Amino acid sequence: MNAVLSKFKAPKGTFDIIYPDSENLEMILRIGYETLILHGYRRISTPIFENTQVFVRGIGEDTDIVTKQMYTFEDRGGESLTLRPEGTAPVIRAYLERSLHSSGVPQKLFYFGPMFRRERPQAGRYRQFHQLGAEAIGSDDPAIDSEIISIPDAYFRKLGLKKYRVIVNSIGCVNCRKPYVTFLREFLEKVDAELCDDCRKRSQKNPLRVFDCKEETCARAISEAPVISDYLCDGCRTHFHSVLGMLDALGVGHEIEPRLVRGLDYYTRTAFEFIFEGLGAQNAVCGGGRYDYLVEALGGPPTSGVGFSIGIERLLRAIDLEGIKPVKLPRLDVFVAAVEGTPREAVLRTLSILRSASLSADTDFMGRSLKAQMRHANRLGARFVVIVGGEEFERGEVVLRDLDSSKQCTLKNNELIHRIRLVIEAKSGANNE
Ligand code: HAM
């Protein structure tokens, strides 16, 4: 590598996705999209930046994301914009702006794309990461909560993953949270001296968030704290029990985790995470829940919603840890080698004919000798080499070499595709037997 160029590095907390990882990513996305489409979700793509207020109002101004992690900038027109730290608030912005309710509710939408949070980078925590997420907007039916939880479960099973747990909780609504927060604050005042600075602030502004603190001293101090599930109002309790019953009916194994709270303020009632063994501190591969006030927070009418997002980098790591090989990388069908002196146009024409017949094909662009071209074809894992040039070229023929059997023959140009197809089909037939 050129020493001058190599001083540039990807920004901290970001990375390049390079073949074959890029191939694994494509494969897991394809299965993810198929799973979502099977459940009746349709894709939406929103811009990667939004007006900053979409996130401040949506996620909540006292959350860690909004206070510490957003990439916010003023553009040349003086507007405050933010690279999206998550996908739910933008989807709701689009739902309202485009009046998506008019084409029927619930609107079942999914998205994939990069998200940006200026967190302290560590394994599984990046500043640019990717989420595959889904949102069902417009229904408060507990059946849709259970559907939303069952989708990542179906998806992870399809991928062959086993070592994960689904944890669920209900964090109530405004009615039950108000009295609960009073009790929680009273408790936190008693243990104030044992809390970290952040949790002391949280206990004033957003006391539920103390359950999300990773400090051991805080965890100890709040081990006896009252939990929201003991304070749910009748409506929230009934809703939660229905969701759990439906998860049982769907065969989605789950555990109730009364201390599960989420890092975004928009949640109400159902909250859940998919936790993978062996991923270390950042072990949540998927998180989500219900957000019955978010649409109003962004200026819309009272509208329920529920959704999830999967962290794709963590999912790829989980797949790797479980030893799953996502894709058998496709081979290059044909490498077109040229005898010295053969017109480049003849090589390009052969390539184009092969590719038009849906055979993957490549050639030499480095002026290599025929021997070096054969070595390169092997390095690329090609199945066949077609040699263009020499006397055969004058007669309208090419040499076809099968790199698996090391046999070769001379063919008329117009027989080439047919012969390659015959060999490939015979081979795939034998593999399927
Ligand atoms: P979240 O829990 O903040 O929820 O993120 C969802 C998932 O994104 C996490 O479980 C994790 O796998 C991944 N993730 C989050 N931050 C990072 C990071 N810095 N580096 C790598 N992966 C990360 C949400 O974003 C909500 N919008 C989910 C939702 C959708 N709720 C309702 N609908």
Supply the CATH superfamily name of the largest domain: Bira Bifunctional Protein, Domain 2
Residue share in β-strands: 15-25%
The total tally of domains equals: 2
Structural class: alpha+beta
Q: Strand tally, please?
A: 16
Which CATH first-tier class of the largest domain would you pick? Alpha Beta
* CATH topology (level 3) name of the largest domain: BirA Bifunctional Protein, domain 2
Please state the CA-atom Rg, rounded to the nearest Å: 28 Å
Mean model confidence by pLDDT: 94
Helix content: 25-40%
Shape: elongated
- Number of helical segments? 15
**Biggest sheet architecture:** 8 strands, mixed
Which parts are unreliable, with pLDDT below 50 for 5 consecutive residues or more? none
In this entry the ligands are: histidyl-adenosine monophosphate
First-to-last CA distance: 46 Å
CATH architecture of the largest domain: 2-Layer Sandwich
Describe the overall structure.
This protein is of the alpha+beta class. The protein folds into two domains: about 20-175 and about 235-320, BirA Bifunctional Protein, domain 2; about 335-430, 3-Layer(aba) Sandwich (Rossmann fold), CATH 3.40.50.800. Helices cover about 40% and strands about 20% of the residues. The chain contains 15 helices and 16 strands. The protein has helices spanning about 20-40, 50-60, 65-70, 90-95, 140-160, 175-190, 195-205, 215-220, 235-250, 295, 310-320, 345-355, 370-380, 390-395, 415-430, and strands spanning about 40-45, 50, 70-75, 80-85, 105-115, 130-135, 165-170, 255, 270-275, 285-290, 305-310, 335-340, 360-365, 385-390, 395-400, 410. It has an eight-stranded mixed β-sheet with strand order 1-5-6-11-10-9-7-8, sandwiched between helices. A five-stranded mixed β-sheet has the order 13-12-14-15-16, sandwiched between helices. Strand 9 and strand 10 (about 285-290) form a beta hairpin. The two termini are about 45 Å apart. The structure holds histidyl-adenosine monophosphate. Histidyl-adenosine monophosphate (HAM) binds near residues 307 and 308.
